[in-house]
Amino acid sequence: VFKDLNEFSNQVIEFQKAVTAREAVEHKGICGFDGFIDSFITMKHPPTMAEFGPKVAAAAGIAASYEVEHKGDKFGGNGPLIASALSDIYSNKIDITYIGAMGEDEVLPIYKEALDVKMSQLHTLATPAHSDCLEFEDGKLMLSDMRSCGEITWERLVDKVGLDSLRETLKTSRFIGAVNWGKLPHVGEIWTNMAKQLSELGVPEKQVIFFMDLAEFEQRPMAEREALLQRLPGITAQCRTMLSFNLKEAWQMADSFDGDFHARKDPEAVAELAIFLKDNIDVDRIIIHPNDGAACASAEGCTYLPGPYCQKPLISTGAGDNFGAGCIAACLEGFDNLGILLAGNCASGHFVRTGQSASFADMSALL
Predict the structure, then answer these.
(1) In contact, 141 and 134? CB cutoff 8 Å
(2) Are 338 and 303 in contact (CB under 8 A)?
(3) Cβ atoms of 224 and 150 closer than 8 Å
(4) Which of 85, 127, 216, 280 is most deeply packed, by most CB within 10 A?
């Protein structure tokens, strides 16, 4: 457990050297499987969730009005955001196929504009869902219309992409970024079948990185959570698995194993929680990312690093996806737990300060 950047300054220097001298390999992979259009709204008064909550409660049964600033619409969804951020890390020199909800029959202009130049292929499965992202200085409130999320199924993916085309892409893939299980009720079957296809194609075990971020899953019944946990051993047998949580999600997942970590935010508790989840979930790495640091637990042990905390972020929606993209990139480059956390922290830290996804050079500059 590191408390200060100076405690691991030597590793920082090694990380900077490694990302500067990295071999220019064009990695190939798949990201998916959601799609949202996000409307961004910044709360002006009150500016914090801590102040807003009591005011809303006091106004129950009456009415209330608050000042906001509409920032416009952006392409969204955990999948599109992590795919876009990963492309930026590699300065668009990476071969990514994105599969997700970007339009009923064809990819909508908002996604084409954002992803066409970054992705090798775009496959749309359904109409995107819609979120109003209410951003505060101390967090965000996502108000989501997710009616189309139930249309994301393995059968539809095979129908829209084609099994032969999918297998051709999987054959040479080095990573799969599979996110937003919490809002996609049938995506677990897609995850399982991706790993199964890799096995049937004869792709060597542990060659493909399989990054998973469940996103907010509070609304998913406990039985569905247990079913997901039963899928993970099969995926882990074939792939190098990383399961990533924000702190609230990690607390909730620990509840599944009678582990009470709620409200424990100090670095030692976050590291302990990562180890607890690794002991109970069959994946290669557990990653937890509070907004002021991150922990990674694997067979090699557990590391906690402080993060470049930002008191007043320019943008917060997408920070977790940029963190995940940093983790995937570091894993592709062969970094250990500490390097993975450095990349994740710097990718998200750069994003919340600038509103732009980081490159390797940006990560090094932020350090």
Answers:
(1) yes
(2) yes
(3) no
(4) 85
The token duo for 45 is 């008064």
Q: What is the pTM of this model?
A: 0.91
Angle between helices 187-200 and 154-161 (to 10 degrees): 60
Nearest to 319 by CA among 229, 240, 213: 213
The single-letter code of the amino acid at 228 is: L
Q: Give the CA-trace dihedral at 143, 147, 148, 152, to 10 degrees.
A: 100
Burial class (CB in 10 A: 0-12, 13-18, 19+), 130: middle
The C-alpha atoms of residue 306 and residue 4 are separated, in whole angstroms, by 6
Give 293-352 as a DSSP string: EEEEEETTEEEEEE----SS-S--TTHHHHHHHHHHHHHHTT--HHHHHHHHHHHHHHHH
Mean pLDDT, all residues of the chain: 95
The model's confidence at residue 65, banded by pLDDT at 50, 70 and 90, is very high
* Distinct helix (H) and strand (E) counts, the chain: 13, 13
Contacts of 92 (CB under 8 A, 6+ apart): 117, 118
For residue 177 the two structure tokens come to 């970024």
Distance CA 46, CA 52 (A): 6
pLDDT for position 216: 87
Gyration radius from the chain CA atoms = 20
Q: Would you list the DSSP string of 28-73?
A: EEEEE---EEEEEEEEEES-SHHHHHHHHHHTTTS----EEEEEEE
- Type of residue at 348: S
Angstrom distance (rounded) from CA 88 to CA 128: 23
Nearest to 320 by CA among 245, 218, 263: 245
- Helix, strand or coil for residue 24? coil
